[in-house]
Design brief:
Blueprint lengths: L8 H4 L4 H14 L32 H12 L6 H17 L1
Helix pairs in contact: 3-4
């Protein structure tokens, strides 16, 4: 399995390299589809959110990011999509409550 992450250098201008690298890692590890809205969640996936300037943007992976990445790899693939989503949400909630 391989991932390719394309970074728009004009859009990334002004952001710390570490933040851009963390965003690229998260996108490739959990295979986020372009256009997904994560603005309600404290996540590095919001790095390029249009309502934030580079100084307001997250700078590294958050607790939520770690919980999401861990949880997504713990789910069995043989479940239905709905069951996977439910289990993912439950696992994230459990990890965040610890």
């Amino acid at each position: 399995m391989a991932s390719v992450v394309v970074i728009d250098l004009k859009k990334a201008e002004g952001y710390p390299l570490e933040a851009v690298a963390a965003h690229a890692a998260m996108v490739s590890l959990v295979q986020i589809k372009p256009g997904k809205d994560f603005t309600a969640i404290p996540s590095i996936l919001n790095l390029f959110a249009s309502d934030k300037s580079p100084s307001e943007a997250p700078t590294d992976l958050t607790r939520w990011d770690y919980a999401f990445a861990q949880s997504i790899y713990e789910i069995k693939a043989r479940k239905s999509g709905a069951a996977q989503k439910t289990e993912l949400a439950n696992r994230i909630a459990t990890k965040l409550s610890q």
